[in-house]
Amino acid sequence: CAVCPHQLRSAATVALASPNVVLDVVDATQEPELAARYEVRSVPTTVVDDELIMMGVVAPGELALRLVERQGPDAAERVFRALLDAGHATQVAERLADGRGTAPFLALWAESDAGRRAVLLEVAEESLLYDPFGLVPLVAPLAAALDGDGPIASDEAHRADTAELLGKTGDDDARAPLERLVEDPSPMVAKEAARALAELDE
Predict the structure, then answer these.
(1) Containing H/E element for 188?
(2) Domain count, the chain
C-alpha cells in the first residue's frame, strides 16, 4: 500500500530506539492466516502483544507514547478502546465476559453518545455467548451512576439505554434500579425500563 512504508519507518524508529521493542513485519497478502487471526481489514495495521491494535500511520512519538502507556493504570482501557475502534467486537466481547473489560466498558459507557452506546450494547449482547453472567459486575456501578449526578443520570437517552443494558444482565439485583426507572418522568425511559424488567422475568 502507499502509506505502509511510512508506518514501517515509524515502527522501525521506535524499535531502534529501544531494545525492549521487537519488530516483525508481515505482508497481509502473503500471510492470510495471520491477517485473519488479527481481523485485519485495512493496512497498515499495527498489533502490539497480540492485543493493542492500531490502524493507519502512527507517528514515532505517538507510537512510543502508546507503548509506554500500556504499562500504566489505564492500559486495559486503552486496549479495550483500541479494539473497539478497530472494529474487533468479538475480542471486546470476550474481554467483557471474562472481566478484563468491565472497568473499560463502564468508562466508555459513561462518556458515550448514542452511536457508541449502540455498539457497546451489541458487544454486551455478544459477551453473553461467552459467559451468561458476564454482565453482572456492571449492575452495581450502573445503578450507582443512575442515582448520581453524572452524564448517565442527567440524560434521558443515556438512562433509557442504561435500562436496556441492565435488562441484558440477567441479574436480579438489576430489578431495583429498573423499578425506579419505570417511574422516570421521561416516557422513553419508563418504557425501556418496563421492557428491561420483562426481559429479566423471561
Answers:
(1) helix 187-201
(2) 2
